[in-house]
Amino acid sequence: MEYRLKTPLAEGDVRRLRVGDVVYLTGIIYTARDAAHRRIMEYLKEGRQLPFDLRGGAIYHCGPVVQKKNGEWIVLAGGPTTSTRMELYEGEVIEKLGVRMVIGKGGMGRKTAEACVKHGAVYTTFTGGAGVLAAQSIKRVIDVHWLDLGVPEAVWVLEVVDFGPLVVAIDSTGRNLIEEVVEESSRRKSELLKRPLILP
Amino acid sequence: MLSKETIVKAIVEGIKVASIYLPPDVKDSLKKALEVEENPATRAQLEAIFKNLDLAEKLKAPICQDTGLLSFYIKAGAKFPALDVVEEALIEATRIATREIPLRPNTVDPITGRNPGDNTGRYAPVITWDEIDPRGDYLEVTIVPKGGGSEYVAVFTMIPPGKGLEGVKEVVLDAVVKAGAMPCPPTIIGVGIAGTVDKAVSLAKKCAVIRKIGSRHPEPKIAALEEQLRDMINELGVGTMGMGGKVTALDVHVDYAYRHPATYAVAVVFQCWAARRATVTIKSNGEYTITQ
């Protein structure tokens, strides 16, 4: 199925999605990778208010190529980074901040999947490396937080229109598409290890 | 007289070409993947890849936002007249390219976390004096903007020497399954076999990032190993971006060095589908060409 969704995302809209579905997202997304997640966790631990509100929002694992022209930031390339590194934090971020969609690539693990089931969220993937295509959907840089972390690690607040195709890779029933593919690969590997190489 | 400025200009131009245009062998091989894949989610990824490549060329923008840790592999003619300024020129070209293209500032001090913002720093960009041509009067620099996602899943291990090539196969297949969708498959996979850690890793790295897709090792046994490893990896079914499919590796390249009786070092290095590279050749009179 193909869906066109808008932020803020309603729990019902997100719970309807299933792995393999394709989403085009319009609204506001927040980039966050390793350092931003670490800082979010510090804020949560200290009970401090974040400078942005992620309720019903989408987090994008991305460190863009940006350029400042006439005082305005422009995103030239903005594809996803590998999500696996954010597995450490994402379950808690979904739970405590009310995030409804995590966008990245490469797959996420059990803790994120559990949070998606419990709190009504999905993990979707955009094609890794397709940075210019992603930038076409980014219409405006609304704001940037924590630029002291460096350009790739800062939180960029982006206005997107029909951002996609985003493939649902973890849904709120707990299915995990990429993990299923890798588990099948692992089974095939066991078979291949029994088949010897035939070399001249 | 050949000046440092000439080298800087040629290298900046080379970094642009490498960052914006995918080499023809890589593009052709991705086209073949699109021809054989049937799963809609997998095809959607490959179609997005081709849309992205067209847009990058049209807009002169870097293919991927991860413009990599810039790596330079140098083949130097011993008679090239400006060898003393080559390293300075590469660093200066990196700074200029970062500003002009622009590239994402990627270098980070691992001790303090500071990002200097210009893609330079201690041992960065990565400069490798790879080969000396004793009679040459030219400089050949292969530029590889190496992405972090595919570097992240590299594997190095020592296997019991008794296991031999079957042991190598196990390490490679394990690495590919463990990497899953993380290195942006379909990837080019480099395998290095040697006696020391550094030799295995540097051979694997060059196999992954420099050799062209479809090129085979000159020794028939190694060439056959490359093809069989490639076919087995593709039987694993990871597919483009881990969506499942027939093409997980665009190719596998293997190289080896003689080992020590006690050590059998195996390294596996991945290059993402956005396998960017360009070679700048500068003659002693300052004329230069860029090839991919």
Structural overview:
The complex is a heterodimer of chains A (200) and B (292). Chain A is an alpha/beta fold. Helix content of chain A is 32%, strand content 30%. Chain A is globular. Chain A starts with a strand and ends in a 6-residue tail after the last helix. In chain A, 50% of the residues are buried. Chain B has a five-stranded mixed β-sheet. In chain B, strands 4-7-5-6 form a four-stranded mixed β-sheet. The two termini of chain B are 27 Å apart. Chain B has two domains: 118 residues, 2-Layer Sandwich (Dihydrodipicolinate Reductase, domain 2); 123 residues, no CATH class. Chain B has 292 residues and is of the alpha+beta class. In chain B, 50% of the residues are buried. At the A-B interface, helix 5 and helix 6 of A face helix 3, helix 6 and helix 8 of B.
Q: Which key terms come to mind for this protein?
A:
heterodimer, A: 200 residues, alpha/beta, fumarase, two-stranded antiparallel ribbon, 6 helices, 9 strands, 32% helix, 30% strand, B: 292 residues, alpha+beta, Dihydrodipicolinate Reductase, domain 2, five-stranded mixed β-sheet, four-stranded mixed β-sheet
